[in-house]
Write a structure and sequence with these properties.
Helix content of chain A: under 10%
Largest interface: A-B, 27 and 25 residues
Shape of chain A: globular
Number of helices of chain A: 0
Oligomer: heterodimer
Structural class of chain A: mainly beta
Strand content of chain B: over 45%
Distance between the termini of chain B: 41 Å
Shape of chain B: globular
Chain lengths: 115, 114
């Protein structure tokens, strides 16, 4: 079984709809991240969480919100989706106890299309 | 501010040929350096990392990278590529003082021709 899972894997929605992307991990890591990937732009950080009570904005948080329901779960919401949020979204985790270099482990991604 | 530049968006090479994927970074402080690989329709996985010590680091699948502090580079190399190396490769940096995030380059798509 995969250590970091994302649901759904693909989603097509319409402008203005509320969308939630979910991430679960069985690695026991304390830190979790949400990125979006756009062609030619690499990965950009949306939000990150160091533990259940610690949530921080990344470089492109506008239009997004997150919820850390438990150490193993980190959800990303688009309150009112717009077409330029069409992208590939990745969840990642890291373990602060294994060294400070912050190696991150990625889920398989969610492809979101906003029409 | 830190940044990562991958100069080549696409690199086509023939099978069994050598390849170098270039990465330069900008930082006024010490960094950790990473290369991630993304195979088609998959998430990213760590290929190799430089934390400290020897500037030549070896990763999985026969890849290696060399950290050059004076040139602020961390180029990825493989002496002989295979069709299975077809993927997108991302260079990434994390500064010592920031536990929050890794900054990714824009990626280099490696395509292998038979």
């Amino acid at each position: 079984d995969a250590d970091v899972t994302q649901t759904p894997r693909n989603r097509i929605t319409k402008t203005g709809k509320r969308i939630m992307l979910e991430c679960s991990q069985t690695k026991g890591h304390d830190r979790m991240y949400w990125y979006r990937q756009d062609p030619g732009l690499g990965l950009r950080l949306i939000y990150y969480s160091f533990d259940v009570k610690d949530i921080n904005k990344g470089e492109i948080s506008d239009g997004y919100s997150v919820s850390r329901q438990a150490q193993a779960k980190f959800s990303l919401s688009l309150e009112s989706a717009i077409p330029n949020q069409t992208a590939l979204y990745f969840c990642a985790t890291s373990d602060s106890t294994t060294g400070d270099y912050n190696e991150q482990f990625f889920g398989p991604g969610t492809r979101l299309t906003v029409l | 501010a830190q940044s990562v530049t991958q100069l080549d968006s696409q690199v086509p090479v023939f099978e069994e040929a050598p390849v170098e994927l270039r990465c330069n970074y900008s930082s006024s402080v010490s960094v950790y350096l990473f290369w991630y690989v993304q195979y088609p329709n998959q998430g990213l996985q760590l290929l190799l990392k430089y934390l400290s010590g020897s500037t030549l680091v070896k990763g999985i699948n026969g890849f290696e990278a060399e950290f050059n502090k004076s040139q602020t580079s961390f180029h990825l190399r493989k002496p002989s590529v295979h069709i299975s190396d077809t993927a997108e490769y991302f260079c990434a940096v994390r500064i010592y003082s920031s536990a929050s995030k890794i900054i990714f380059g824009s990626g280099t798509r490696l395509s292998i021709r038979p």
